[in-house]
């Protein structure tokens, strides 16, 4: 009986002492790769984005499932948007123009602290 009690105790302790893995965030290179086809549209385009851009938006949406992913994607998008001049109206409407969703607007003014 004491062996069974010891096994139960070890099992219970194992559950509580198992390390919790933190959420791994999406890398900026993945975000950039997905949104690269959108750059010319966001800087000088009009109307609907090209299909390759919308495919990237959908891939990014599928890849950003956790709060950490969304915040990391936001920081990446914001840093890139600060280095190029995008048309704000196209950035804000990118996801809806692709009939998709995205964790954030492709804008330099987005508040990444509210994302997630």
UniProtKB/TrEMBL annotation:
One of its GO biological process terms is: lipid transport
Q: Which GO terms describe its molecular function?
A: lipid binding
User: The Bifunctional inhibitor/plant lipid transfer protein/seed storage helical domain covers which part of the protein?
Assistant: 28-112
UniProt keyword annotations, A-Z: Lipid-binding, Signal, Transport
Q: What is the lineage of its organism?
A: Eukaryota, Viridiplantae, Streptophyta, Embryophyta, Tracheophyta
Determine if Transport is one of this entry's keywords. Answer: yes
SMART domains referenced in this protein's UniProt entry, alphabetically: AAI
**What function does this protein fulfil?**
Plant non-specific lipid-transfer proteins transfer phospholipids as well as galactolipids across membranes. May play a role in wax or cutin deposition in the cell walls of expanding epidermal cells and certain secretory tissues.
PANTHER family noted in UniProt: NON-SPECIFIC LIPID-TRANSFER PROTEIN 2-RELATED
Q: What's the protein name?
A: Non-specific lipid-transfer protein
* Signal peptide boundaries: 1-24
Q: Which family does it belong to?
A: Belongs to the plant LTP family.
For this protein, the record's CDD domains field holds: nsLTP1
């Amino acid at each position: 009986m004491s062996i069974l009690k010891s096994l139960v105790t070890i099992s219970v302790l194992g559950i509580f002492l198992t390390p919790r893995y933190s959420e791994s965030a999406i890398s900026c290179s993945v975000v950039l790769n997905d949104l690269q086809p959108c750059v010319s549209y966001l800087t000088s385009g009009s109307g609907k984005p090209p299909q390759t851009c919308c495919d990237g938006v959908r891939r990014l949406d599928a890849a950003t499932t956790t709060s950490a992913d969304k915040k990391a994607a936001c920081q990446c998008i914001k840093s890139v948007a600060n280095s190029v001049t995008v048309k704000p109206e196209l950035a804000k409407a990118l996801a809806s123009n692709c009939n998709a969703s995205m964790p954030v607007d492709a804008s330099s003014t987005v508040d990444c602290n509210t994302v997630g």
